[in-house]
């Protein structure tokens, strides 16, 4: 079993102004997440947030401690959010099994020792997308299905952004220290996500794009509102968004994405909105 972790250091808004496409992709795009029989992690210096992917096929995969956290167990000083975007899978926490179907989530609080991922059917393996942030208190483990989520219906076909937001791991649904996660699903005929665009100056965010048909892509917009940048994203890739950056996207097809946040507070609507007409 392999746990592969790399580190991304924080990049400032002025530094990004000099970046060419390859540099933007190297610093903010997270590729090759979903690798068979491997746990792939990226440890970022934005609020010490970790994003990763787990694809158990021929064996169960254990989320062991990594050198970046200098702890005996991965969750000694962290909390964890898991969203399955593949086939039926199981997450076993200290001997207790939690089965996750596609688009179901699991919150795992600080202090749990053993986290093991497995697939029910190796021919249709689970694809677990995971986020983790530092935690100061232990909260109970909780599974959250789509029926348990807060659901927001936003946008319209007229503006190409009709979407359903499933707030899975958020304040009011799950008790957490700072981690928040959910899924946004674009409806057929809609391609724009998170428009009007916004920033979270008090926290960072990561977008993981999935349900994207073959040979289709999403153009993810980042940067400052008056000096935007873009990154083309394929299926099952993620973009890490710094606090100073907007985060929005437009696809060549409808798609879904998992959003995850950590930082100063747990208020979902704590954002600074920028109208499309104001972007440059």
From TrEMBL:
<dbReference type="GO" id="GO:0019698">
    <property type="term" value="P:D-galacturonate catabolic process"/>
</dbReference>
<dbReference type="InterPro" id="IPR011051">
    <property type="entry name" value="RmlC_Cupin_sf"/>
</dbReference>
<dbReference type="Pfam" id="PF04962">
    <property type="entry name" value="KduI"/>
</dbReference>
<dbReference type="InterPro" id="IPR014710">
    <property type="entry name" value="RmlC-like_jellyroll"/>
</dbReference>
<dbReference type="GO" id="GO:0045490">
    <property type="term" value="P:pectin catabolic process"/>
</dbReference>
<comment type="pathway">
    <text>Glycan metabolism; pectin degradation; 2-dehydro-3-deoxy-D-gluconate from pectin: step 4/5.</text>
</comment>
<keyword id="KW-0479">Metal-binding</keyword>
<comment type="similarity">
    <text>Belongs to the KduI family.</text>
</comment>
<feature type="binding site">
    <location>
        <position position="205"/>
    </location>
    <ligand>
        <name>Zn(2+)</name>
    </ligand>
</feature>
<dbReference type="InterPro" id="IPR021120">
    <property type="entry name" value="KduI/IolB_isomerase"/>
</dbReference>
<dbReference type="GO" id="GO:0008270">
    <property type="term" value="F:zinc ion binding"/>
</dbReference>
<dbReference type="GO" id="GO:0008697">
    <property type="term" value="F:4-deoxy-L-threo-5-hexosulose-uronate ketol-isomerase activity"/>
</dbReference>
<feature type="binding site">
    <location>
        <position position="200"/>
    </location>
    <ligand>
        <name>Zn(2+)</name>
    </ligand>
</feature>
<feature type="binding site">
    <location>
        <position position="198"/>
    </location>
    <ligand>
        <name>Zn(2+)</name>
    </ligand>
</feature>
<dbReference type="GO" id="GO:0042840">
    <property type="term" value="P:D-glucuronate catabolic process"/>
</dbReference>
<keyword id="KW-0413">Isomerase</keyword>
<feature type="binding site">
    <location>
        <position position="247"/>
    </location>
    <ligand>
        <name>Zn(2+)</name>
    </ligand>
</feature>
<dbReference type="InterPro" id="IPR027449">
    <property type="entry name" value="KduI_N"/>
</dbReference>
<comment type="function">
    <text>Catalyzes the isomerization of 5-dehydro-4-deoxy-D-glucuronate to 3-deoxy-D-glycero-2,5-hexodiulosonate.</text>
</comment>
<protein>
    <recommendedName>
        <fullName>4-deoxy-L-threo-5-hexosulose-uronate ketol-isomerase</fullName>
        <ecNumber>5.3.1.17</ecNumber>
    </recommendedName>
</protein>
<keyword id="KW-0862">Zinc</keyword>
<dbReference type="InterPro" id="IPR007045">
    <property type="entry name" value="KduI"/>
</dbReference>
